[in-house]
Structures are given as structure tokens and as C-alpha cells.
Amino acid sequence: MKSKIDGSVFVIGDAALTGDMSRSASAASEQARVVAGVIAAELLGRKKLGDGFETKCWSLLTPDDSVYVIDRFRPTATEIDKTGSVISRLEDDIATRRTNVMESRAWHAALTKEMFG
User: Fold this and answer.
1) How many CB atoms within 10 Å of residue 48?
2) Mean pLDDT, to the nearest integer, of 52-65?
């Protein structure tokens, strides 16, 4: 995710060539976390941890019902390739679907707090 023009610049989110990775808030926040880890490792002279991304996106069907997709990615020299997916099941019971809703709300609250304090 380093710029091809200036290796001290990282490009994430909608500005990045993300290949298979979606252009979503969960993808951009995951990219930011990975880049922060790379920068920290470089500053400390350590090996970077991990080399993949995982995003989870929810779709709210009703106020108490939600489904999700988890995608896993690995960066290549030119883009980000999808390596796998997990999709919630149509057969999931209502308690599971409500848990999905609570997870999505918790994720949103945590992301908002990270960004704005």
C-alpha cells in the first residue's frame, strides 16, 4: 500500500488500488490498521506482523435482523487479492441474526470513537 512514487507515503481507502477488496468503511479501517502496523514495525526496525486483511460487512434487513459477509485478502505487488469468504447462513436463527445486529452496532460505535474520540 506504499505509493509507487514515494515509499514514505501510504495510500488507503478509496484512493488505493485495492483489487478485489471492497471500497467500504470496514475495508478502509482495516487498511489503516495494517498500515499503522507497517509504519510502527519500520520505525522500530522489526518485522511486520501478518500480511493479510479481513473485513466484515453487515446488511441490516430490519431493526432486529442482519446478515454479513467476511472477506479475507492478501496483498500482492500490485493489488489486493481475495483469499476467502464467509457468509452468514439463511438458516441462522433469530438470536444469531440479533447478535449480528449488535455486532454491527458495536463495530460502528468503536470505529466512530476511534475516529472522533
Assistant:
1) 12
2) 90
Confidence bin at 49 (pLDDT 50/70/90): low
Q: Find the mean pLDDT for residues 52-76.
A: 90
The string of DSSP letters for the chain reads: -B-SS-TT-B--GGGS--TTS--SHHHHHHHHHHHHHHHHHHHHT-PPP---EEEEEEEEEETTEEEEEEEEEEE-SSSEEEEEEEE--TT--HHHHHHHHHHHHHHHHHHHHHHH-
Contact (CB, 8 A) for 72 and 82: yes
